């Protein structure tokens, strides 16, 4: 059995991680949970039948020696905690964002020594996304040319009453980093690396330091062009992706997760996924545990996990500077490599 520990026992741990682990109960066992709130971690362990409850990460790692740690803490804690887990000999599966800068991401990758850190991007693992990548790679739909990537969500003022939300230091960014990142990751998994981005980001209404809306125009290395919107100001919520190929259009409409029924194509006979797997934590966890059992680097770790954070960095860099940004410019001497706000004020 793969020994699993949960780090952070808030809503995402109960709503997404524990059901995914229950589906893998034949090969994964949750042996411990850790949270700085003693009452919350004890209640969490009692609810889920977990034997070990801890309030100190180092103590938990030393005593339990988990094989895999699910990191479900606020974003500002991720990099430090992920590195500590890797150095203790555990693999890590971390909620998005894995960290708050490319500099932190590279420190995490440097800490991998036969252990790996993967980020939660579950939308890549639904059958619809897998099928679209196969069609794209085979050329069956023709050349990809145009894409739309829309995350139109709604978060009211009370959402930002949580102390760590809405600041560059603790949340790391606004909807570009914390919400739209899932749709952008799915777009990137289909279209590949980008070459140039031109963006705007603004704080229009919410009581935050970060943006509450961003827009970008993107040119990809394969020549495709895309338009991207990330918003928490949209009362009618929707997640929407559209891919226009030379011979077909494929669209996805959903909110926080999809099945095959959420996908359509024009003409309709170009869309026939062989199975129906929903996008979910369970789908990604299954692939991660497969990699663990084979001793291979898991999906969405290393360079693959860095790809979407690099895109977010480019978007912020363009929005703050008011200039187009090329992916090749995001080097160590670039201030946005070290902070997503580049040390500037929005």
From TrEMBL:
It holds the Pfam family GFO_IDH_MocA. Residues 130-238 form the GFO/IDH/MocA-like oxidoreductase domain. Residues 2-113 form the Gfo/Idh/MocA-like oxidoreductase N-terminal domain. Signal peptide: none annotated. PANTHER family: D-GLUCOSIDE 3-DEHYDROGENASE, UDP-N-ACETYL-2-AMINO-2-DEOXY-D-GLUCURONATE OXIDASE. This is Gfo/Idh/MocA family protein. It comes from Sphaerisporangium corydalis.
